[in-house]
Amino acid sequence: MKALRKFMDKLKPHFQEGGRLAKLQSVYDGMETFLFTPNTTSRSGVHVHDSNDLKRTMITVVVALMPCLLMAMLNTGHQHFLALGVAAGWGEKFLFGLLAMLPVIVVSYGVGLGIEFIAAQIHHKEIQEGFLVTGILIPLIVPINTPLWMTAVATAFAVIFAKEVFGGTGMNIFNVALVTRAFLFFAYPSEMSGDKAFIKVDSALGYGGSLPQNAIDAFSGPTPLGHVVTGDITHVPSLWDSFVGFIPGSPGETSMIAILIGAVILLFTGVASWRVMLSVFAGGAAMAALAHGCMSETYGASMLDVPTQLCLGGFAFAAVFMATDPVTGARTKTGQYIYGFLIGVIAILIRTYNSGYPEGAMLAVLLMNAFAPLIDHCVVQVNVKRRLRRARAAKNEVKV
Amino acid sequence: MAIIKLKRGYDLNLKGKVESNEVTDVKATLAAIVPDDFHGVVPRMDKKAGEHVVVGETLYHDKTHEEIKVTAPVSGTLKEVVRGERRKILAITIEPDGHNDSRTFDTKNTVKDLLLESGLWAMMRQRPYDVVPNPEARPRDIFVTAFDSAPLAPSLLTVLGDDVKYVARGVEALKTLTLGNVYIGCRPDETVEAPEAVIHTFVGPHPAGNAGIQAANVKPVNKGDTVWTLDIVTVARLGKLLATGKLDCTALVAVTGSEVKEPRLLRTVMGAAVGDLLADNLVESDKEQRIVSGNVLTGEHVTPDGFLRAPYRQITIIPEVAKRDEFMGWASLSHKKFSVHRTFLSWMCGKKERSLDAKMNGGERAIVMCGEYDRMLPMDIYGEFLIKAIIAFDIDKMEQLGIYEVAPEDFALAEFADTSKLELQYIVREGLDKMRAEME
């Protein structure tokens, strides 16, 4: 490590003001703090600090996303070979998934971190770690067949217009990963939904088979909810299949098991709020039960029972990884219950009663992102009112 | 006597506790008063360098309220008025003559005059603003804390020793200054006798010992209220002053921390030079050590030629940087990296004694994680929203969210645990000062 430290020290002058590479100072700083915990000590206030910082917190979320990522790769390969009708081992399936997802991960991180580095350099600030998580969320929620350039454009749009213009990490109003998804969804609707988005039927980086062109055109592999929205519930997989996750869908969202492992990590480390998570599921379950109670053939999803509703689509993924984003969610304890519950209700509401959208989790979270500050305001106002009342009571007491 | 249970907060278990109650006498070769310790008092010197002073003699008074005085803790020769930028007084040093003569106060004076004249007034704080009390305002209540819950802090009853018998007298005197009550906050196993006081016992982790936290859980400060806070040691000093007519500024000091060879209790005077207190008690190390006058959360960073600061009865020495250039510290799986959060593995060791250094362990960020401040602040206040209001300097919001109830020290633990590494105490201090300038 000493050699590396020496090497970094040798490079340092070039990146400092007046150096040849001064324009890349934020990149150097980012690398340095990534490699070595800074030796800076506290100047004012407390003399000791907790070991936990934002880097650690974000890395914890990335670790929690790993089971989803691995299952996403496995399932991408599984669906590919299933569509091709070719028998393949788990190793081959995983390798295919890895090769299919790697370019998306590279593009997502490349574009997002690139913009973050530039923004940090412009503002002469340290690079903030928020995109570490966003960068891995994007490949997990963008359909596998989305062209890379679209992912790049959407990521750039989201990072610039949903985050940097608001002041960067910790200041954004909307969840950046979901804005990426929403941008794709509304800008390129034909590529993003329907039959062809979710199963990769051509080869990935030259690996895996490819259906002939006419077969690709004829290929149809919508998600279970894609079937449901048309009123066809015969294609709904068994609860077990959707729990394990070998069903078509956005890469990260299909496996309930992987999501639950992530949830356990997030809750145990205290990074995510159990209040939000629990109440999203509670809200979803309540709405699903209500819809199932007033079952109607007009609305396919209302014919699904509660567990199926919660296991299908992006609902669980949104509950665990999207709704719990502390920056865009409600920040007061009471607010978190309300915020989460409404996300659950709205997600299932959209999914069931709006035939234009087979899935509502993304829109529900984004909508509630907009309302989170209002919810917090109301909760804080209760505290403010209590304080005022107390003051008034004390004043009257003195008068008496 | 009511028992109040506080759940929020955290007891940092640091290495270097004082184990024995044995007290060593230490003669200070130099002592000092640091005006920064008396926030809100703008010093105007009454004495010049070279003059002889006795205990309780006025060193300086406040610019606006001339009756507020800060007095000498020892008898001796005023050595130097150390000034910094723009002639700001940094310290007033006194070379003790070893006699410890004290000025005799006329105990027939009113309690208020006695407090002001003896300098004990400046040892109190008022809410709002956490400053030396304004003599024109009459306090609604007076809150006395009888225990220090800060990391490694000595028991205040140990610090008091025999002087505990003066507490009742002090409380009686304080009672004449308020329309309300004198409240004393104690630990269940360390209660004091004071018939005139209303005594509450507090169970729970730090910051339960902060007078402000106790006030918030007994009778919160409202807009327009003035409340005084002080510790039991100052009350005993007042009692002793009334009983004997003399000011006693001897202080029992705990020398603590992981960089101390033998943590122990010393009897010395307020403002004693740190060098005298440490002598050869430091662990020999080639690494830099940080001397904190006070506890690690709210204390002052002092140099080896610094002084014991007036509000504290404790000196803590910790390593400055225990391990330089830690490689990818954020990825560490070591249980030695301490965190109150469970993102690091330190939770596996329970509440083991820790030796923490002064490293920031990360860079300053925007507030991302929620609920972190509330977890460390046992008050009916939305800490994070208050901090944001202060940063934005939104006076109405600050008022609504309860800025009158808080002092910087109440946010010290939150600052320790903060993932975003914000300087919360500094932010609160700035907010209170600006607010005071705006309102007065």
Please describe what this structure looks like:
- The complex is a heterodimer of chains A (400) and B (440).
- By secondary structure, chain A is an all-alpha fold.
- Chain A has a domain at 21-37 and 53-202.
- Chain A is built from 17 helices and one strand.
- Chain A has helices at 2-15, 25-35, 54-84, 90-123, 130-141, 148-163, 176-187, 189-192, 213-218, 224-229, 239-244, 256-269, 274-293, 306-311, 315-322, 333-353, 361-399, and one strand spanning 36-37.
- In chain A, helix 16 packs antiparallel against helix 17 (361-399).
- The mean pLDDT of chain A is 88.
- A six-stranded mixed beta sheet of chain B has the order 1-13-12-11-14-10.
- The longest helix of chain B is centred in the C-terminal third of the chain and has 16 residues, at 424-439.
- Chain B has helices at residues 111-118, 156-160, 167-175, 211-218, 232-244, 274-278, 372-375, 383-391, 395-400, 412-417, 424-439, and strands at 2-5, 23-25, 31-33, 43-45, 52-53, 58-62, 69-71, 76-83, 89-96, 125-127, 141-145, 182-186, 198-203, 227-231, 250-256, 264-269, 289-293, 300-302, 314-319, 326-327.
- The two termini of chain B are 37 Å apart.
- In chain B, 20% of the residues lie in helices and 21% in strands.
- Chain B is an alpha/beta fold and 440 residues long.
- The model of chain B has no long low-confidence stretch (mean pLDDT 92).
- Chain B has two domains: 2-244, no CATH class; 372-439, no CATH class.
- In chain B, helix 3 crosses helix 5 (232-244).
- At the A-B interface, helix 2, strand 1, helix 3 and helix 17 of A face strand 20, helix 10 and helix 11 of B.
